[in-house]
Sequence to fold (342 residues):
Amino acid sequence: MAWTDTKTHTEQIHILIVDDEKSIRDSLYEAMKLTGYQCSVAGNGREALTILEKEFVDVAITDINMPLMDGIELTKIIKEKYDTDVIIMTGFVNDFSYEDIIVDFGASDFVHKPVGLKEIIIRLKRVLRERRILKENRQAEEQLRLTMENLQKAMGATIQTLALTVETRDPYTAGHQKRVATLACAIAKEMVLPKDLTDGIRMAGAIHDIGKISVPAEILSKPGKLSDMEMGLIRTHSQAGYDILKDIDFPWPIARIVLEHHERMDGSGYPDGLTGRDTLIESKILAVSDVVEAIASHRPYRPALGIDKALEVISSSSGTLYDTNVVENCLKLFHQKGFNFI
Ligand SMILES: [Fe+2]
Fold:
């Protein structure tokens, strides 16, 4: 029973012997079969390629000097086109260095002729073991990549749910967070910031007003001018958002971006009056996007003022309230790249 299991396992491994000497082909074929491998034979490189076109081969063991196509050319083609390891056999040890055969030709190992059957089986098993480890590593990496992708999707869905939670209570700003996230992302791309940072901006933008959940709904939707006390309550939303998000282990500084989105370059913002030196570039981008979207859109206490007015406001406060580079790129998006809120 044990023998059958072993045979079943090893028969899946396919070895191709390539040599113009029949006696060598025959003895290696026998050795492979005895070890339990599936085995094919070819008399030169061309015959070997015909077999490789039709069947998957794990390892090719090839001679160098052969008619029609030699072992070096065959090895180069195999390494270009197939997931097959190559062991080179040569009787001309002095003509080739280890570097030639392994580094330049891409072979996994080489053996001297005349070939000792025991030696070649040992070397073959080492090559097969390395193949298996490499394959397992690749599978583990792929699995990890898929897991990360799924986690990101789940995180994106969670963030969308959080965004909807606050927008349900505050219908006047429904869609605001999404539009801010879109503009902030476009600015980050225009500034050629790294993708990872841009992803963080998208996520933070989508929930930057989550803290409004702690502000009474009647204040959020009040049509008239807000009193100082009501304004004070609204201003608690960035700290409240930070408090909601701070313990979630995002791969981006989401809580901090949310906390800083109303800070201004000259320190006149809230909640901490931080200057541009102390805030993240993500926060500076979100600040500009937030203001542009808010001015351009309808609010309970005023009609929409339009995009021209919004761009005028950020231009006139560029360098004092808003980061100049961020403003410049935002203006470029609207004036030259045809960006528009959908
Ligand atoms: Fe806000």
Observations:
- Residues 208-209, 237, 261-262, 290 surround fe (ii) ion (CB under 6 Å).
- Confidence is low (pLDDT under 50) at residues 1-8.
- Strands lie at 14-18, 38-42, 59-63, 85-90, 109-112.
- DSSP finds 15 helices and five strands in the chain.
